[in-house]
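Schema walk-through. Below, the input block comes first and the output block second. Nothing else is stored per chain. Lengths vary across the set, and this one has 671 residues.
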Amino acid sequence: MAVAAVLVLGIAQVAQAHIERPSYWPSPGPDCSVSPCAGGKVPTPRSLASAVQTVKGSTTRVVCQPDSLKRLDASIKRALKSGYDIRPHDHRTLGAAQARDLKRINRALFDRCRYSEIQPAVTDSRNNDRVVVLPGVYTEPTARKKPTHDPACDQYKLSTGAYSYLGEYNCQNDANLIAVLGRTPGPGKDPDPPLVDRHGIPNRGSCLRCNLQLEGSGVSADDVVVDAGDPSSGNGGPRNSVKDVGIRADRADGFVLRNLTVRHADEHDIYVLESNGYLLDSFKTFYAGEYGVLTFVEDHGVIQNCEAAGNGDSGLYPGAGAKTSAGRDEKVYPTARYSQQIRYCDSHHNTSGYSGTDGSATWVHHNNFYGNALGFTTDVFTAAGHPGFPQQGDLIEKNDFYSNNFNPYVADSDVVPTVPVPVGSGMWIAGGDDNVVRNNAFRDNRRRGAMLFAVPDAFVCADQPLTGCDPLKLSTSHRNQFYGNKMTGNGVDFWWDAFPGNSGNCWYSNGKVTSSPSNLPDCLNGKAPFLSIGFGNLGNEFELLTCMANLKPGGPCPWFTTPAATAPAASRTVPAGDHDHPATSELDDAMLAAMTCHSWHEMTTGQRDHMLANMAVFMGGQIDHPGARGTTLTNQKATSVLNNACGLSFAGPFKLYKLYARAAAFPLQLP
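--- output ---
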């Protein structure tokens, strides 16, 4: 109980998510200034066959390579003989009639081909248009030559160091290999600092490329590859990235992407931002530095029929989705619904299969999360300016979380992890509310099946209280339900910190299970959630403290050893090109986000102090509650945290802001 009391008083506002420009949820209704209307629902994809037809108000632009038809013929031959994979768990066959139709359509498209790169075709497109890409590996040489962090683009930076939308529009290939900018810039300036209320995009321009469809024309996603790094690495590493993002869709209402592969971006292979209505279908992502897919502040979105592997943080990241279910603003969202849906995807061989800071109202079903270090995480480790606290209202059902025992922290790992997680775990929910986890399979996760723990209100308002927020109260980790799940072969099936004051969390109808603590509240089979109240668990709270705030070589944190392994994890060698060391003379948030333990080791004491001063300014920034600001670590405490964590043999690529974030959330320093 003593540890629990300290946690209640001490958890601070911090950042776990990546750095974006201050972003806003799009207004949920359609934009009918274009016809058909853009947004307001998940877009319906157009068939490949219709791309060769004349459609009023829509132009098809075709991108190809000289050997595209030869590549297609080879792919069809393989598929006729052996079939093809939509994802590892979805193998399909190709019939002779389908093969003939696909050849006919591609030959007609090849005759219309006028582009050898994708970005020019996208740039030339307008509302309702489509870009069809024939088989090939597309490295986008023109976009690659565009400078990154071009000084000419500094004029578009906000006070955080992120580009405004105008900056993304005018410098589209500074960070992105391919950029789909869906709207014109607005007539005014983006609010800086950002507005507190994040409903509705301020300074929004007119539809320019709304309802755009970008698709490959091959048998499967394997036939059309967009590579933001080293194509000679294939679908593996090292990535040797040249751009931060593979494909970016920004304010692109009604955007459809299908039937292609994106790989080797330094941050995110596919990035969808501030878009109302999107569909990502039948695609694959491999070996991004952070996320295979990142969607942020989205509404009316579906991700389906996908594979994501080899990513340093997670395969799929639906962050800060529109809060349209529990905790919603009923004036904006009168009827409860899910804002995003993720289904029929395989996410494997990542540090985490799925993550989503403040990722609310997401329906996650019929997916396979396997072979990761951690299968699934949703959390409230919220950066200043990151909307959506607290996370609420996901439905997670009919998924298979199995064999998440991959250890990216050992010497021979081909995945470069950017965040510490507990190897051997199927799921954790860190501070989420009103989530339902039902009818899933959790099997062979050798540490734990599913974890639940709290992040109290002091995370939001410890230093500067606001109306309705009390640092001594808990508004996270309430009313979560786990039922109907099949638990087999896990180290421990369910793990709960039983944080004092947590209420309404229920575990029932899961069959015979193991748990820590040994008796979890079943709430009379879910009928009486008020019977569930946390009273603290010293052992579980101690683990959170040691692994969140007191990482150090030889320390007690058990997370980085594969539970079944008998030997300690070896040190790892980071592939060349997988990290850099930004100078510390002029630090903005984007540079802070790029710094790793490698950077920390190379800094002088003065440079470290300068960096930590800038980190404190960022972490103490305004969040999306009136008057609320983040709590920070002292330089002395932050130095101790980073010295210890970066002393781990495998911690070189860990992001400093993520280590700082977790330590500030659990600030008690253990001896």
